[in-house]
Design brief:
By secondary structure, the chain is mainly beta. The protein is about 0% helix and about 50% strand.
Length: about 100
Amino acid sequence: MTQQEQEAPRFTLPLHDQGVDDGDRVLMKVMFRGNPAPTVTWYFNSQPIQPSADFQINVDFQRQESTLTIVEVRLNFHASFKPSRFLNELCPQDVHSSYPLSVIL
């Protein structure tokens, strides 16, 4: 069995702005590479997001993608989504997506 070459984490598909309406479900997606597999973290108003009824997080290491779903955007929902970030043994410092994300109501 051949061991894969180590690779510092990087985004291959960064976040992009989205326009949404009140009550919409919003799906945000990033794609990444890195070996060993990086730890992926999403942020809401500069705080790490924990999965909940409002925020669903999925990380698929085989597809090398991570998604964040906001189940229902509310009209009074004023938020700043800091780009997701990740790290691995080759890159112990945070690697941020190149582009910030705005949810525009």
